[in-house]
Amino acid sequence: MASNDWMNKDFYKILGVKKDASAEDIKKAYRKLARANHPDSNPNNAQAEERFKAVSEAHAVLSSPDKRKEYDEQRSMFGGGFAGRGGGVGFPAGGTAGGNFDISDLLGGFFGGGGGTATRTRTAPARRGADLETEASISFEQAVDGVTVSLRMTSDEPCPSCSGTGARAGTVPKVCPNCEGSGMQTGASGGLFAMTEPCTICRGRGLVVEDPCPTCHGSGRASSARTMQVRIPAGVKDGQRIRLKSKGAKGENGGPSGDLFVLVHVAPHTMFGRKGDHLTITVPITFDEAALGAEISVPTLHGLPVKLKVPAGTPNGRTFRARGKGAPRHDGVKADLLVTVEIFVPSKLSPAARAALEAFRAARGESDPRTDLSAARS
Question: What percent of the chain has pLDDT over 70?
């Protein structure tokens, strides 16, 4: 990376703090951004890795009172950044006003000498817990009303023997001498500045274990089984995947827990179905009820049946709406019950019923409901 690129960076802007921010504000901003962009939480995410490098660089300077003072003075001197060696603001080409000027001399003052690399914090990085997935089977009524279910989960958690440190009881892990606890190391890039990458010694943990825990063998993690109560919201549909925030595996070093994803299986109902927020039901009616009109009783999922008026001349398959007799919606208002009528045709007739239908046929005369079909074909 070129020297002018380095010095043109606004570390305050990178951390999202004001120039007069306190040391505590800078630390809080760094921890928040480092946790959100750490490579462990964002695998294979090049943008997050670059942001992590940037906030680490910014924190290395602004967290040190001496370096911050020099940084502020140089930023003020050069108007917010360098314009490049040999042509910088306030200097003639070829050097400073009072002699030869070398950017590496200034950077050495910033970062503790000729290497040009920042001293990093010695706090082990926080790690977000892993996301977990499971399945739950519930009844139709439970899907409509919502239900709390017990789920037994097996996940990777901090080891109970060492409390997640990875070290044998009575010992503690040490700060990684390679990355000084940052979890990141600098690799040769062939230029003035080095590239930052996860530490190869501690693998990004920031700590090394000399006497490993016999339970987790130094990893700090172990398989753990637990039973949790999970609320399945009302209105969930079969095959829906629900995300429960922070219900996944626990984080490490103060990192947040992961999320839990529950795939819901809803058993079908013998009578009722669903159409959006509404419940559906198909109800049989007789020919005379459809032709002459009637008042029928329709069951509901909860509570007493509802009375429904079927007007005379109702065709087969017509759908009626019983308002407020369906399932509760997310806003608390009950949806509707959609009632589809289906004309029932008996497989057997009594002599009296047959005689009545034959009389109806005779009374109907020559009217043919298929006349329009025949006309359309001709």
Answer: 80
Burial zone of 350 (CB within 10 Å; 0-12 exposed, 13-18 middle, 19+ buried)? exposed
Phi, psi values for residue 84, rounded to 5° = 115, 155
What are the residues whose beta carbons fall under 8 Å from the beta carbon of 83, sequence distance 6 or more?
A: 4, 89
Separation between Cα atoms, residue 49 and residue 146, nearest integer Å = 41
Transcribe 335-375 into DSSP letters.
--EEEEEEE---SS--HHHHHHHHHHHHHHTT--TTHHHHH
Read off the pLDDT of residues 257-303 as tens digits, 9 standing for 90 and up: 889 999 999 999 999 999 988 999 999 999 999 999 999 999 999 88
DSSP 3-state of 104: helix
Q: What's the rounded Cα separation, in Å, for the pair 323 and 300?
A: 12
- pLDDT tens digits along 30-55: 888 988 887 777 777 888 888 888 88
Same domain, 261 and 277: no
Range of the domain at 250: 128-165+220-268
Number of domains in the chain: 3
Residue 128: HSE in the Cβ half-sphere, 13 Å Cα cutoff: 22
What residues contact 255, with CB distance under 8 A and at least 6 apart?
35, 41, 126, 127, 128, 129
CA distance 351 to 359: 12
Strand, coil or helix: what is 198?
strand
Within this chain, do residues 30 and 96 fall inside the same structural domain, yes or no?
Answer: yes
Express each pLDDT in 180-189 by its tens digit. 777 787 665 5
Q: Which amino acid is at 5?
A: D
Q: Are the C-beta atoms of residues 4 and 81 closer than 8 Å to each other? A: yes
The Cα 358–Cα 343 span in angstroms is: 19
Which of 90-94, 144-148, 302-306, 314-318 is the least confident region?
Answer: 90-94
Are the CB atoms for 136 and 151 separated by under 8 Å?
yes
